[in-house]
Every structure is written in C-alpha cells, then in structure tokens.
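Hi team,

Filling in the usual template for the complex we talked about on Friday. All components are listed, including any nucleic acid strands or ligand strings, so the model treats them as one assembly.

SUBMITTER: L.P.
PURPOSE: interface mapping
COMPONENTS: two
RESIDUES: 550
SEQUENCES:
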Amino acid sequence: MNALQRFELFTLNDGEKAIEVVEDTKIPNAATIVVAKQDHTLANMIRGYLLKNPKVLFAGYKAPHPLDPHFILKIQTDGTSTPLEVLQETCNALIALVGKIDAKFREQFQQKELEIGLEEPFGAPGAGRLPRGEYAEPRRANAMDYLDF
Amino acid sequence: MEDPAIRIRELAKDRVEFVMTGVDLSFANSFRRVIMADVATVAIDMVEIEVNTTVLVDEFLSHRIGMIPLTSTNCEEGMRYKRDCPCLGICRYCAIVYDIDVRCTEGEMNVTSDHLTMVPPDQWDHEEQDSSAAEDILSKRGKNFGVPAGPATDPDPNRRPISLVRMRKGQALKARCVARKGIAKEHAKWSPCAAVGFEYDPHNKLRHTAYWYEVDEKAEWPLSKNADEEAPPGDVFDFTSIPDRFYFDVETTGSLAPQEACLRGLAELQQKLAGLVFACRKVNEPADAPGLQMPSTMANGHTDGFDKNGWGGGAQTATWNTSRAWANTAPGGGASSAGGSWGSGNAGSPDGYGQRGGARSPAANGWGNASGGATSPSGNGWSRPDGSSGGDGADSGWGAF
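RESULT (copied from the run log):
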C-alpha cells in the first residue's frame, strides 16, 4: 500500500539529487550522506572499503526502511581530509578494483573457453539447430565476439 | 590485502563457478547482489489476451509467459528502457512483440515457448523517428536477440521448450505479448540468474555461523566441496583472520551467457560508483561549473536520462555504455591495448587512485571532460591495468562489450 512503484527504487525523480551531505555539528570531521535510489549493494561495499582507509575513524551505513529507496552513510575522518573527499577517494579506489577484476575475468574466461572448447553460449549459434556432435567449428584462438574488446 | 584474483573452476554454457580472492567480503557480496538484481535483460512485460479457453486464467498465463527467458545478448546496448524511449508506446528500439496463436484440434497438446513467434517490427512499429543514432542500437544486439531460450538457441538436441499450458481438443489461446528491457529490481523475471551460489569459509573457521545439531555436528553438516580448497582448521581459533576466499556459482536462466552476466555485473558496479563520485564532485563544485557534465545515465546508475542528453542527438553522446568514444579519443590510450577508457595512462600503477592519468584528456564525453574547465579536485585517474585484450586495442574501452 505504501510501497513505491518498483522502478522508483532505482531511478531518480526529476530534479532529485543523487546525494545530500549534512555535516555534523557536534562531531568534528563527520558527515552524514544520504544517497538516493541506492541500496545495500553500493552501501555495504563502500562502508567496507572506507574502513580500510586509515584516515577514517568511523564509517557505517543504514538503509532506514525497506520501502525507502535510499541509504544513509556516516563517515568521520581524522581531519586530514573531509568525509566527502574520503568517500570520493574510496569510490575511485573501488572503481579501479572493479576494473582489475574485470580484466582478470576476461583473461580467465578466454583461457577457460579455449581449454574446454565451450560450445557457444545460449543464443549464440545461428538460427539453425545444431546437434551437439556435429557442431565442429573450433573456436579460433583470435576469434572475436561481442564480449571481446 | 593481496591483489584481487579470479580462478574459474568450471564454465558451461549456462553456469560458471569461480573463486574470487583478494577482495573484501562486502565487495564479494555486492558483486553477487549486482549480478542478481541489476543486470538488464529482456522479458515479456505486457500480454494482451484475445482468446483464452484453456484451463488457466489469463493472469496465470500471462505470468507464465512473462517468466520465459528471452535471449538478451548485449541487451544493455541493444535496447532502450521504455522510460528512456521517446516513442509514444512501443517501437523497435524499446520493445519486441510476439504473437501466440494456438488451437488444439486433435487430442491434447502442450503450448510451449516454441509457439511464441516474434512479429517483425515493420508490422507494428509505424512511428517515424529520426533514426541516425538509433540505427546502431539494433546492430549491437547479439544473435537470436529476443528468441526464447530453448531449442532454437541451444545446440543441445535434448533441450526442450518451456511449457506454458496443456490444452485439449477445442481449446485455444491467442495473445499478443510485448517484451521490454528491465532489471530484476523491478521484477525478478528480468534477472539473468536462476541462482547465484555464494560461500566463504567452508570450514567455519571464522565462526560466522553456529551449526545446530542433534548429536554430532560433523556428521550432520557435511563439508561442501569448497572445503577442499582450504586447509582444515587448527586447534586454536585465529581471531585475526578475515574472510578472503569467495566461492561463486553463477547459474543463468539462458537469457544471458554467464560470462556476460558477470562482466555486466562489474560494469554495473562501476557505474554505480561513478555516479556517486560524480555526485560528490557536484557537491564540491558549484552546480554550473563548466565542464562538469556527464552522461545523464550516470547520475542514477541507469539510463533514464532521456531529457538531458537525449538519445536523439548525435551518435553515441548520450549513454554511458555506448560511449566508446571515451576509450578511443583519449590520447595515447587509443591505440595501445592497455587503454582502459579511464585514465589509460595509468596502466602501470598498482592501484590507480589518486593518480592523474589520462582522466583529464579532452575526451568527447564524460569524466575527461573536466579538463574543459575545472581540473578535478582529487584527480580521477581510474586506471584499468588490463592489457588482456590482445592485439585489438582500438576497441578496448571499458564498457565496450
């Protein structure tokens, strides 16, 4: 009854800001950041890596209610940089990490596909129905498909 | 923490099993979540039933029809979300139309996903659009795009189509279905995954869980096969250890290959993070700072930004994922195989943050754009030390699947 339309869980409304930053008035170098239209997927990951940063004294998040499509992130730093800077730094580090993993994945997929001579994944063989035994075209080492760069 | 690594244990056409190391538990879990809920696929979203004299009611049937996995290879680039599409109802860029028209004349029969026939767009899409940018959306679609995953897309001769309903003589079903692009956060039918297995610490060395048992814990809780990968626990509880090996088993429904589901998941994570970084920068800098523009898709992680940077404009200006331009126009990054689109100058750096690599390049679009005016405060040199792409560097942008 009170639930939003499902798509409102991940699309910003017109003019809605992606984040809202409230600096804490009672704790030094602390801020509360409300991130709209995101959930634990982003929040927990960021929290985890914020805590690895020595500049961060406190980092925590909560998703206040399952029907509220936002989460609240609290960060306190040691004063050498602002919470927002630390957050940006962490996100950039995470983006780099994802990039690394992506490269690893591609390398491994390529290797594994060669190794086992995988038949094409779903959807790949043309319109015709090819029985398993007769599908003889081997995967060329330098074959390109849409997943390659 | 050591460098992240992936080891694929098993790869089949519809599943992949791998071990991820060198990342935090929170990251591994986010990756799991993003594969399950944020990777776009195509699924039937609207069913207009004309005749239904089967034993199942209309709602029951339309639900079943919606669940059919449709081949969605490269759906992210090959199709638009309805909300991003300038068309008034349905058009070839945001919808696929199917007909199902079955009548049982003899005995009994099964209605299956094989009876779903795709209607060519010319028969239902009469809207005139300026199609300069849109044309290449269609060309990005993978083979068999939109075809129900089943005998038509699978070389396995034993593969059966998906049953919808069983009919008897005299019964009929006639309906028109419209498939849309979507993500599983909206409805689970859009999930590329049937299941994602996720495990860490198979020996329960970290004591993150306590097993309930009747008599003998060891006998009642057999070890999983992942337990072979790790040494059994010693006598002493190591309270400093943290989880660092994660066992994934990604099983797809057939709409996407497991490779694509994983890589798209990563791209989706990157997009979420980039959206957040962008939002942070917007807070730091005055709202209308020159050069601070990004593809509107990044602001909310999904391409709903038709209003701002629209599709209709020049080719490839609008969306995050289609902008190969990033990779290609970065000076020095274009030709080399190491050219991740972000900060291609950084390929050698161990961990590209804080570096001022290629990010300030006058790229056509996106982050590099900051060089038009303000220099980015924290230097967003996102490196992607990749180089795995072999010879073909020209195309090797991030997101250029």
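MY TAKE: The radius of gyration of chain B is 24 Å. Chain B touches chain A through 108 residues (CB under 8 Å).

Thanks, L.
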